[in-house]
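Hello, quick one for you while I still have it in my head. No rush at all, and the record is pasted right below.
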Amino acid sequence: MQSIFDAIGYNSWILTLLLVLPIVGAGVLIAQAQRHSSSDGAATMSSARRTALLFFGVECLVSIGLWWSVDYESTAWQAAVTLPWIESWGIFFRIGVDGIAVVLILLTTCLMPLTVLGSWTSIREKPHAFYALLLVLTTGMLGVFMSLDLVLFYVFWELMLVPMYLIIGIWGGKRRLYASLKFFLFTMLGSLLMLVAIVYIGIEAGGLNGPPIFDYDVVTTTGAYSYNTALWLFGAFFLAFAVKVPMFPFHTWLPDAHVEAPTAGSVVLASIMLKMGTFGFVRFALPLFPYAATHPAVKSAVITLAVVGIVYGALVSMVQPDFKKLVAYSSVSHMGFVILGIFAFTTQSVQGALMVNINHGISTGALFLLIGMIYERRHTRMIADFGGIAKVMPIFAVMLTIVALSSIGVPGTNGFVGEFLVLIGAFRTEPIAAVIAATVIIFAAVYLLWALQRIIYNPLSKPENAALKDLNWREIGLLVPLIAAIFWLGLYPAPVLNRTHAAANRLVERMGGMPEANITVVPERR
């Protein structure tokens, strides 16, 4: 198969195409909106969602080749492209990927068509604008995973902010303006400090008499900062990424944004955008400032915040009356596992963190889709308003149970693999933190199983629930790939571990941690 991709020069154009195609799709949707301005609402909605699904579907299909075309063991960037941009300022259009970036790109491109299917009947106002914003947002998210120039990375990082702000602010719930403004201000504050740090790094790398240098490979190998300077620079990057993760105590924007966002917005936020923060640590903050990041005081502080986030997110989830807010707070806990795995600096823990990233995107995305489906039927997300709906919605009950068990981390599901690797790897360097995190997994079982009991297994006591209709074929069809991924990664994670091992090992070696030759127990079938 590799020879086929080489014959068509796949790696020379695929990344550029993945960035350009969504922008083209957004332009097509805007043109359609102008042409359908006088058409009836049903025709307008149908044309918008079909066009969006077409572009997202093509994006997904053409991106899948990255799974086979990339040399994951190579130390060179794969599918790399370098084009002149603002040369006088030392800024170039440089993009490329490694194993870590590839799996996150595929997570993005494969989830976006499902978000369109998930919002098929719920987006009735300005559908062309909604899907155009989703497409622009996709370009921003993919650009973050591909960027090898610090300024280009910042441009894509900020590009994500505006579409999501508008998606929440226009199509969100009753408190959408408050939630969107809070999301914007939190993200912007951290981003501006990161921009200051990027400018400083570029000027330092270029010298006083030359143009700035923002090339990733240059600034990560030649940067020599005083210890205090490195701490300030790391702090600027840390704040930007900690807000996006979000880490405790920078998480307060997340529950509001999740609750008020439309279903598609919640799925994108949880499944992809939160991963930008953890990816930022892995790709930029740690390689740029390894001595600051590995200082005992800094490392201890970050590990402490991660563990507090794990405990806090789980405890707060247990008392949430709103099912959507429960899932939102559970994300704070899950992302704490990711930060713990990254800063434990072992290959096992870093690979576990990457698996938790992927698994959280799949499981939590599925949970938000299921919540959106039941909300369309009952127009409420309050757990107390349900009860016994397994009797009238058996397919929904089965799907929700599987996804909840995955989020808990039951063996055989994807959630178990990532958390197990994080705990095993972290125990080698941070045993106390690992023990506390392992204990909190019990709380995850409590809040999700208790929610399941109250929603689907209690008596069917409310007349409104007796008339609910089960999932239709569209809803089943969009959930089946996510359920399949849950069991695939839970039973056979070797393909993903093989593709991320080399990149994770290089990061751990750079940070002076505990690298390993190989942790994949089950060889991948070829």
Remarks:
- The chain has one domain: 2-362+413-445+493-510.
- The two ends are 11 Å apart (CA to CA).
